[in-house]
Amino acid sequence: MAFVSVDQLSKTFDKTAVIKDLSFQLEKGKCVSLLGQNGAGKTTTLRMLSGLMKPTKGTISIDGASPSSDIRSFIGYLPQHPVFHNWMTGKEFLVYVGRLAHLSKKEATTRAESLLKQVGIEDAKNRRIGKYSGGMKQRLGIAQAMIHKPKLIMLDEPVSSLDPVGRREVLTLLEELKQETTVLFSTHILSDAEEVSDELLLLHDGHIVESGTMDDLQSQHDSTRIDLSFSKEAHAFEVPISQIDSVENVQREGNQLHIYAKNIENARTEILKLASEQDWPMTKFEVSRTSLEDLFMKVVNQ
Ligand SMILES: Nc1ncnc2c1ncn2[C@@H]1O[C@H](COP(=O)(O)OP(=O)(O)OP(=O)(O)O)[C@@H](O)[C@H]1O
């Protein structure tokens, strides 16, 4: 059985279905991103997985247990907007959280010290949290979620609110965390997902529309296209190009043509031949690959 298994999960608020028959599985030790635009249902999904919200329908199993039983002892959760006691120091806060997680005072102190070091805020451990920057608070939040050495850590948009420096620091920290535990984090930024995660779940309109490793998704959706620009309107060149055998589809955009072909090499040769024979006023000839970004945009714009 998969480490995390979600089956036909649904959540309805005031008769509006926000999560619709969501199913996916996670393997132990992976770092997986839940990617979706604002309002896709990422927070709702993570809250149900962490046991903070009851599903309307469907089942969740994490290491064989359901969120209604006591999974708190082996999951860690960082909400999108964590709330801290600003008057406490970072170290006091972590010891306090450790005690809430049933660690002895000695264990909580040792663990707090080691996490402060690991997340890179050791120098600020005796400073009040109110004086921490956004990036430091986020790192403290991650330390808090890791206090009891969870088997699964879930992080809701851990880098969204950070500036580029803070974002880089937290992404690097996520890279390190995935050596110790299974990580599921949500984001609406594809490049963050691409950079850190082994696998991606693309959530749109309450269900998973694409999933897999970056390589799988890249190769499934990878296609090549030829972009041509002309010094005048491109419609005169559209017809001869569309008649080339290997060309599947031609899209015109003003002075440009985007050409999708079954065999890009043949299409390239034939187009260049026509261009030279008919002396086309071509200003650009470019072979480009479609990326995961294109896939993401295609899915979210549907
Ligand atoms: N408690 C609630 N009551 C009613 N509607 C809710 C509630 N919680 C979430 N929603 C709605 O569910 C939808 C999904 O919200 P959710 O916060 O899960 O999305 P998200 O993907 O995390 O978005 P964001 O990136 O903006 O945080 C939204 O339309 C939101 O308004």
Automatic annotation (TrEMBL):
<dbReference type="GO" id="GO:0005524">
    <property type="term" value="F:ATP binding"/>
</dbReference>
<feature type="domain" description="ABC transporter">
    <location>
        <begin position="4"/>
        <end position="230"/>
    </location>
</feature>
<keyword id="KW-0547">Nucleotide-binding</keyword>
<keyword id="KW-0813">Transport</keyword>
<dbReference type="InterPro" id="IPR025302">
    <property type="entry name" value="DrrA1/2-like_C"/>
</dbReference>
<dbReference type="Pfam" id="PF00005">
    <property type="entry name" value="ABC_tran"/>
</dbReference>
<dbReference type="InterPro" id="IPR017871">
    <property type="entry name" value="ABC_transporter-like_CS"/>
</dbReference>
<comment type="similarity">
    <text>Belongs to the ABC transporter superfamily.</text>
</comment>
<keyword id="KW-0067">ATP-binding</keyword>
<protein>
    <submittedName>
        <fullName>ABC transporter ATP-binding protein</fullName>
    </submittedName>
</protein>
<dbReference type="InterPro" id="IPR003593">
    <property type="entry name" value="AAA+_ATPase"/>
</dbReference>
<dbReference type="InterPro" id="IPR003439">
    <property type="entry name" value="ABC_transporter-like_ATP-bd"/>
</dbReference>
<dbReference type="GO" id="GO:0016887">
    <property type="term" value="F:ATP hydrolysis activity"/>
</dbReference>
<dbReference type="Pfam" id="PF13732">
    <property type="entry name" value="DrrA1-3_C"/>
</dbReference>
<dbReference type="InterPro" id="IPR027417">
    <property type="entry name" value="P-loop_NTPase"/>
</dbReference>
